[in-house]
């Protein structure tokens, strides 16, 4: 491996580190789940920002082939099953259950606090099997420079772990971070609201919400990917509504009281 590239990433192969002569292709991929970051600001305006933070971290790290990231929507589904959607907070015991259900070897947790104009981001990584904290990291700076904070947090977070990135991996990571870039805090908050609506199945509302995000950050890869996903989900939702309406009319003709159920905008978002 290149001596100049000493940045360590959370591939977390602590339990199965290969010998010095082993190639990357022979290394087992570590499965990592990034849980939505906690809002410790006391300000409801930031309530869903943790969704955007975890989403961007998952997308950024997905370019490292030695790490297998659990999909964010899958994590949210399991949190819903465990009745954690409202608080979004995961204690050690619940974290173990969550990690085992999604098949993750390691869980990444984060939190953020603000004392205007400063924001602090904290992260910790735990082994699912033992709930042992592997490493922690925190950064602080101007909240309006959210992208810079996220990059610094990644650097701090991965610096104490054992897998060295090659120059190629390091370049891919930086390229993905730049591609996902959302500079403005207000835009990140709007993106988080769209993700909340997505998580609760309000696809047309989520698609409408993310239009403003795309206008504010037209070059962001993660925003474009979410727009494409929501366009597909909203189209499916529209077809389902047409089908429900047709069934309702058919029920009326047959003398049955069939009322299509229309989802309201989730109060949580």
Rg, alpha carbons = 21 Å
Secondary structure class reads alpha/beta
- Secondary-structure arrangement, i.e. CATH architecture of the largest domain: 3-Layer(aba) Sandwich
SSE string, helix = H, strand = E? EEEHEHHEEEHEHHHH
- Outline the biggest β-sheet: 6 strands, mixed
Low-confidence stretches: 2-26
Total discrete domains: 2
Approximate shape: globular
CATH class bucket of the largest domain: Alpha Beta
Structural write-up:
The chain has 269 residues and is an alpha/beta fold. The protein has 2 domains: 8-13 and 26-181, Rossmann fold (3-Layer(aba) Sandwich), CATH 3.40.50.10610; 200-257. Helix content is 45%, strand content 16%. The strands form 2 sheets. Strands 2, 3, 4, 5, 6 and 7 form a 6-stranded mixed sheet that branches. The chain starts with 7 loop residues before the first strand and ends in a 16-residue tail after the last helix. Mean pLDDT is 79; it is low at 2-26.
Set down the secondary structure blueprint.
Layout lengths: L7 E2 L20 E5 L3 E2 L9 H13 L5 E3 L2 H10 L10 H11 L3 E10 L2 E10 L5 E10 L3 H13 L4 E2 L2 H13 L5 H15 L3 H14 L4 H33 L16
Parallel strand pairs: 2-4, 2-5, 3-5
Antiparallel strand pairs: 1-8, 5-6, 6-7
Annotation keywords:
single chain, alpha/beta, Rossmann fold, 2 domains, two-stranded antiparallel ribbon, 8 strands, globular, disordered N terminus
Question: How do you describe this structure in short?
Answer:
This protein has 269 residues and is of the alpha/beta class. Helices cover 45% and strands 16% of the residues. It folds into two domains: 8-13 and 26-181, Rossmann fold; 200-257.
